[in-house]
Q: What sequence folds into this?
């Protein structure tokens, strides 16, 4: 059974460029999360969707960040324009809305903005 | 807002000993608390969940306790092995009315030495 799939695994980009991170949740999961992890701040929730609808985006740091979930099997996190302080590991995770909220993480997208 | 504290210093123990990791939180008690393991370069993986009405939960060599009076959870690994070396994260649910979302601590790195 495939887990949460993220792409790209690694990205190095120049400041000012647009970055798009992609996520395919586990089939059948109807809740999707985007987290960012840094040494200083740990794992921070950026935004989450239930049934493809954004529920809480209070963790999105700035208007430069946007996320979409056009269907149940795909989500994107976009940063435009990117800045060096956006360098981090971005994790996508999914779960089901029923029962307890145990989250399944992808392997992360390692972003470096130079 | 809810604050979660985990010991930021790495915990070094000898193989065969019991490792004990601490998770403290402020404000209200969550309905449940979860522990995850994260290996370098990988996404967090769920280990154990304990509900607010449970004092203790066990799974093989792992044991979690939950003291809502102290606002603390302890995570124990008995008969520790070098393969247990990883970062361990605790997470609390935060019910928003639109579904649950997990807030993570910054994690504690465990090193089990031969």
A:
């Amino acid at each position: 059974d495939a887990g949460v799939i993220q792409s790209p695994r690694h990205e190095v980009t120049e400041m000012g460029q647009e970055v798009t991170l992609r996520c395919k949740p586990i089939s059948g999961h109807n809740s999707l999360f985007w987290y960012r992890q840094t040494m200083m701040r740990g794992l921070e929730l950026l935004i989450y969707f239930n049934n493809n609808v954004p529920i809480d985006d209070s963790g999105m740091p700035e208007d430069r960040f946007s996320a979409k979930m056009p269907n149940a099997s795909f989500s994107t996190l976009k940063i435009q324009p990117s800045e060096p302080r956006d360098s981090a590991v971005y994790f996508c995770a999914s779960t089901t809305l029923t029962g307890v909220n145990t989250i399944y993480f992808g392997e992360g997208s390692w972003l470096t903005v130079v | 807002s809810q604050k979660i504290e985990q010991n930021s210093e790495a915990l070094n123990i000898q193989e065969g000993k019991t490792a004990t990791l601490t998770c403290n939180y402020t404000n209200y008690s969550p309905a449940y608390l979860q522990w995850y393991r994260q290996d370098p370069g990988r996404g967090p993986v769920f280990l154990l969940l304990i509900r607010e009405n449970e004092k203790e939960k066990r799974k093989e060599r792992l044991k979690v306790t939950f003291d809502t009076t102290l606002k603390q959870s302890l995570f124990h690994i008995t008969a520790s092995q070098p393969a247990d070396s990883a970062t361990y994260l605790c997470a609390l649910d935060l019910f928003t009315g639109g579904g649950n979302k997990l807030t993570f601590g910054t994690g504690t790195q465990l090193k089990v030495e031969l």
Observations:
- Chain B has a mean pLDDT of 90.
- The radius of gyration of chain B is 14 Å.
- The first strand of chain B starts at residue 4 and ends at 6.
